[in-house]
């Protein structure tokens, strides 16, 4: 039987990876927050990572240590409407003088970034505790 | 020989179950942001009951496989009832999980201390000082 403590490292690792991707999408959203485009289709849409639990072996591979972990299932576009700004001097403006802005709210993104970084820290703590217990278990032979 | 095989007593099995419980709680924490994820918990009492002598399958022949020292994967798993419902159907409440994970780590260390005590006793006996 594989020691479960090993599994905790695996599970914690998947969670760290997933949260990191979430932070990456947030960074991407923030970077593109002020961008404008010539048409509504070309405008930047906020990206959201959707998580999914790794429930069984078939979702990873048999004997994997990551069962019960989490992965990024897909990255979806934010469905909020694209703001249409009247700015006829903008070189990207269409014939009516409108440009299309990214549908990103910086404040929301900052909150999401903080939530992701908190979750990341949580999982680091989980792995740290597991590591400490593993070391103590090894220390039994010194009793 | 009998003494040596039983020297760790119930604590060896308890350590495995405690280990498993920490894994279950780690899953919950990892899936704090996963839509529709249901938090689970390992019922320590239910799993340990499996090790009661009456439930053990006896090895009556040398070629029989051992039965008792494997913790069954699915047994003792319970779904947690959340204090508050969430919009995305996730039942992980991070603060609750953190508290339980901390408690589980302490429980693990307690079992570890018992084990260490036993190992120390055997050592003392072997040294014969």
What would your notes on this structure say?
The complex is a heterodimer of chains A (about 140) and B (about 130). With about 140 residues, chain A is α+β, with helices and mostly antiparallel strands. Chain A has helices spanning about 5-30, 105-140; strands spanning about 35, 45-55, 70-75, 85, 100. In chain A, helix 1 (about 5-30) packs antiparallel against helix 2. Chain B is mainly alpha-helical. In chain B, about 50% of the residues lie in helices and about 5% in strands. The model of chain B has no long low-confidence stretch (mean pLDDT about 80). Chain B has a two-stranded antiparallel ribbon with strand order 1-2. Classes of the chains: A alpha+beta (about 140), B mainly alpha (about 130). At the A-B interface, helix 1, strand 2 and helix 2 of A face helix 2 and helix 4 of B.
Feature tags:
heterodimer, A: 143 residues, alpha+beta, 3-stranded antiparallel β-sheet, two-stranded antiparallel ribbon, 43% helix, B: 129 residues, 5% strand
SSE topology sketch:
The complex is a heterodimer of chains A (143) and B (129).
Chain A: H1 4-31, E1 36-37, E2 47-53, E3 70-77, E4 84-86, E5 98-101, H2 106-138
Antiparallel strand pairs in A: 1-5, 2-3, 4-5
Helix pairs in contact in A: 1-2
Chain B: H1 2-6, H2 9-30, E1 40-42, H3 44-49, E2 77-79, H4 94-127
Antiparallel strand pairs in B: 1-2
């Amino acid at each position: 039987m594989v020691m479960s403590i090993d599994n905790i490292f695996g599970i914690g690792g998947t969670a760290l990876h997933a949260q990191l991707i979430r932070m990456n999408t947030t960074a991407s959203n923030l970077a593109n927050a002020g961008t404008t485009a010539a048409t509504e289709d070309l405008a930047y849409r906020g990206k959201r990572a959707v998580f999914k639990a790794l429930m069984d072996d078939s979702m990873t591979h048999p004997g994997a240590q990551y069962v019960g972990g989490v992965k990024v299932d897909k990255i979806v576009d934010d469905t909020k409407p694209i703001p249409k700004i009247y700015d006829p001097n903008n070189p990207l403006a269409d014939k009516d003088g409108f440009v299309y802005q990214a549908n990103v709210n910086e404040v929301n993104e900052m909150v999401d970034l903080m939530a992701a970084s908190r979750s990341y820290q949580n999982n680091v703590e989980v792995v740290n505790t597991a590591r400490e217990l593993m070391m103590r278990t090894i220390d039994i032979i010194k009793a | 020989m009998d003494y040596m095989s039983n020297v760790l007593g119930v604590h060896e099995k308890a350590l495995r179950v405690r280990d498993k419980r920490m894994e279950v709680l780690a899953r919950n924490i990892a899936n704090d942001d996963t839509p529709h994820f249901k938090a689970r918990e390992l019922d320590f009492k239910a799993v340990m009951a499996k090790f009661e002598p009456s439930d053990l399958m006896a090895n009556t022949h040398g070629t029989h496989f051992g039965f008792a020292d494997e913790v069954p994967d699915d047994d003792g798993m319970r779904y947690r009832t959340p204090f508050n419902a969430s919009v995305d159907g996730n039942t992980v409440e991070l603060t609750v999980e953190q508290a339980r994970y901390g408690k589980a780590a302490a429980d693990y260390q307690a079992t570890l201390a018992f084990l260490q005590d036993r190992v120390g006793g055997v050592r003392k006996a072997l040294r014969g000082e």
